[in-house]
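TA notes, week 10

Several of you asked for a full example with nothing omitted. So below is the full record: structure tokens for the whole chain, then the designed sequence directly under it. When grading your own attempts, check the secondary structure regions first.
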């Protein structure tokens, strides 16, 4: 079978579904980038191979479909579970036999990730919740700040009129508590400046976070690095990215209680949808700890302000982290069970993020 043309490669590589082309002998002729990411394989390692040597699925469903397609009509099977090196993915699989102009038979396998659609829907709900929560918090903070400032000012004026040191102690408490509430409101509102965008090496950010946490914990926890060196620079605010990731890693170090491991892992994702926007390339940063896991009762509200699983903080770190990552057009997700909690950060790479910001700043374009 002839190799695909560069134009065909370009078109197929930009599809949101995975595409694999097999020749008459069931050997791989082509794999697009989405299929590589979906199955956790490299095209150069599977070209010319039989699917049985690298494709793991329940009941060999995909392989059976490829053989069955020899009858000459397309076949679709829904809910096929494929195993990857990291996890399992559920796909709808369509197998189509094709006869090219030279009379050569080959088979196209199209994989549409079902759980990906579910993830996109979940992300859209999460982003909507974040926006609504942030708007409510900002509204409440505005309503509280004005009377709080008046209360503090009145206490200062009253303190100036009092001669008794014992009575001044009460006004001093009012002033101190007003300042504490003001600081709490400021923290709930999160960063009050827009990101200052510049090229950022995400591994420099992670190394900075790693050194800070190791210093804070006196190296009692272990931080393992698993970096993909091929990830290009992204456009972002280095300080804000450090703050966001530091909040997550600090939380992990607290639940480990000076006895455990945090893994910092980076990977490239292609054709990734975040909310309702699709990006050709994105960085995936996984922060994995082997702690007790997140209580199920707070799993759905984990990124809301004032939600915390312990007594070591006020529950603002994850809310602020999500807000900072959202400003970079990214998203934070979390999966957790006993012994393994994964916070996953997705950040768009390349020209896509600049285009998305241009559209946001110039909605009429």
């Amino acid at each position: 079978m002839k190799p695909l043309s560069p134009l065909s490669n370009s078109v197929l590589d930009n599809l949101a579904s995975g595409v694999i082309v097999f020749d008459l002998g069931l050997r791989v002729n082509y794999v697009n980038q989405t299929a590589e990411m979906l199955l956790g394989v490299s095209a150069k390692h599977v070209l010319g191979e039989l699917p049985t040597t690298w494709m793991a699925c329940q009941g060999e469903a995909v392989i059976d479909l490829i053989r069955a397609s020899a009858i000459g009509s397309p076949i679709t099977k829904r809910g096929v579970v494929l195993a990857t090196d990291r996890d399992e993915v559920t796909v709808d699989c369509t197998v189509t036999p094709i006869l090219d102009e030279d009379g050569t038979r080959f088979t196209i396998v199209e994989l549409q990730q079902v759980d990906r659609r579910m993830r996109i829907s979940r992300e859209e709900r999460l982003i909507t919740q974040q926006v609504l929560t942030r708007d409510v918090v900002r509204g409440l903070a505005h309503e509280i700040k004005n009377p709080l400032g008046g209360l503090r000012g009145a206490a200062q004026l009253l303190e100036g009129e009092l001669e008794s040191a014992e009575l001044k102690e009460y006004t001093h408490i009012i002033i101190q508590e007003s300042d504490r509430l003001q600081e709490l409101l400021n923290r709930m509102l999160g960063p009050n400046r827009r990101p200052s965008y510049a090229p950022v090496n995400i591994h420099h950010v992670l190394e900075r976070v790693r050194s800070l946490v190791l210093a804070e914990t006196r190296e009692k926890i272990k931080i393992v690095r698993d970096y993909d060196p091929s990830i290009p620079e992204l456009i972002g605010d280095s300080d804000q990215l450090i703050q966001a990731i530091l909040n997550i890693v600090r939380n992990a170090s607290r639940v480990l209680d000076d006895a455990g491991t945090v893994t910092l892992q980076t990977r490239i994702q292609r054709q990734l949808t975040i909310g309702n926007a699709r990006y050709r390339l994105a960085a995936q940063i996984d922060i994995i700890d082997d702690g007790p896991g997140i209580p199920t009762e707070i799993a759905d509200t984990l990124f809301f302000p004032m939600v915390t699983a312990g007594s070591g903080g006020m529950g603002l770190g994850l809310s602020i982290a999500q807000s900072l990552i959202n400003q970079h057009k990214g998203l934070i997700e979390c999966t957790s069970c006993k012994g393994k909690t994964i916070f996953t950060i997705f950040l768009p790479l390349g020209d896509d993020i600049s285009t998305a910001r241009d559209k946001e700043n110039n909605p009429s374009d």
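Residues 6-118 form a domain with the Beta-Lactamase fold (CATH 3.30.450.20). Use that as a sanity check on your answer.
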